[in-house]
Amino acid sequence: MKIYDWPTGPYPARVRIALAEKNLQSRVQFVSVDLWKGEHKKPDFLARNYSGTLPELELDDGTFIAECTAITEYLDALDGAPTLTGRSPREKGLIHMMSKRAELELLDAISVYFHHATPGLGPDVEIYQNAEWGFHQRDKALRGMHYFDGILKRRPFVALDGRHHGHRRLDLCRAREAAGASGVRGSSGLVRKDAGASQR
Amino acid sequence: MKIYDWPTGPYPARVRIALAEKNLQSRVQFVSVDLWKGEHKKPDFLARNYSGTLPELELDDGTFIAECTAITEYLDALDGAPTLTGRSPREKGLIHMMSKRAELELLDAISVYFHHATPGLGPDVEIYQNAEWGFHQRDKALRGMHYFDGILKRRPFVALDGRHHGHRRLDLCRAREAAGASGVRGSSGLVRKDAGASQR
Questions:
Q1: Is the peptide bond before A7 cis (omega within 30 degrees of 0)?
Q2: How far apart are CA B93 and CA A45, in angstroms?
Q3: pLDDT by residue (tens digit) across B31-88?
Q4: Which long-range contacts (CB under 8 A, 24 or more apart) does A138-144 make?
Q5: Do A132 and B128 touch (CB under 8 A)?
Q6: Is B198 exposed, middle or buried (0-12, 13-18, 19+ CB in 10 A)?
Q7: Per-residue DSSP letters for A129-182?
Q8: Which of A197, B116, B196, B197 measures 20 to 30 Å from A32, CA to CA?
Q9: Is B90 close to A74, i.e. CB distance below 8 A?
């Protein structure tokens, strides 16, 4: 299978983490799509991914699967441990909830800030910006960091107490890196926790 | 189990559709949370759902699971046909992708329009509005309707060609209703297709 991505993108990183956790890297060929040139907004890319987002997975039968969580779902349903998206109904529900919450309150909020309230990927790619909305989402992300800090003070993982779900914490690690790249100053607690997580 | 929701909310409707498809309604007690009074933004609600969103599922052991897709994931992992979130890795990946895309390009865009560029739930609840962003998202939703129209001209379901995935089309049906309630004028094709879907 092929994965279209860009090495420094925080969303592509989420799938690279899932691949590493599942030990599937050797089965994947990576194809670069240059975000800074806006290659993900060009007609040939949009024809196979309407939303114009990275990463995107191409199966050997030509099927395209976009969206981090969908690609992770696919990879997790293949054989091999660990299980990343949950085993029991309760685990599946909680992991999906916290994954969505990490997007809503942190990852996506930082992304909006980057694309709307900073130069983002440059004027050729950022053809519409709403700076006020960008700053509003930055503030949401900062509140989100404190929220996740609070959770990680009480338990080692964001979604569950158990093992095998480290990538959900690593998602936050990537969020911190994205935040750093975007100029969002996070709370020290999250950084400290994530520094540990990144050394797993 | 209990589900906290509000009868006219489009997101709660998605879970009610999943419950109906799985024939699980009799196992659920519904508890109303009045959106118009902003009960979902009050401290006691936020304490158990940081994002302050409906619907929310409460299991008999006291676990809370928020987010439509997470609740659907939980329900689908319980026994009982049909399977809504996919069986094979490829099905799971494609259904998750299209579910996410329906949110990104339609459901969430309409929600932003409603909350930011209309009076929404009223001044007591809508304490921050960014009308320009709201109108931008309305336009995105209108483009999204045409995109999904195009897909439904080629095949009967949004995510897959097969059966057992009707709720993904019904999601769009609810999007149309939400759009109508919000004053977004959709393309006639989507309305016609969804009129059929709602009669299944």
A1: no
A2: 19
A3: 999 999 999 999 999 999 999 999 999 999 999 999 999 999 999 999 878 999 999 9
A4: A138/A109, A138/A110, A138/A113, A138/A184, A140/A105, A140/A109, A141/A105, A141/A106, A141/A109, A141/A110, A141/A113, A141/A179, A141/A184, A142/A184, A142/A185, A142/A186, A142/A187, A143/A105, A144/A105, A144/A106, A144/A109
A5: no
A6: middle
A7: --HHHHHHHHHHHHHHHHHHHHHHHH-SSSS-SSSS-HHHHHHHHHHHHHHHHH
A8: A197
A9: yes
- Of A57, A70, A89, Cβ closest to residue B77: A89
**What pTM, to 2 d.p., does this model score?**
0.85
* Contact residues on chain A for B90, CB-CB shorter than 8 A: 59, 63, 65, 74
Beta sheet of B29-32, edge-to-edge order: B29-32, B2-5, B56-58, B64-66
* Percentage helix, strand, coil for chain A under 3-state DSSP, each rounded to 5: 60, 5, 35
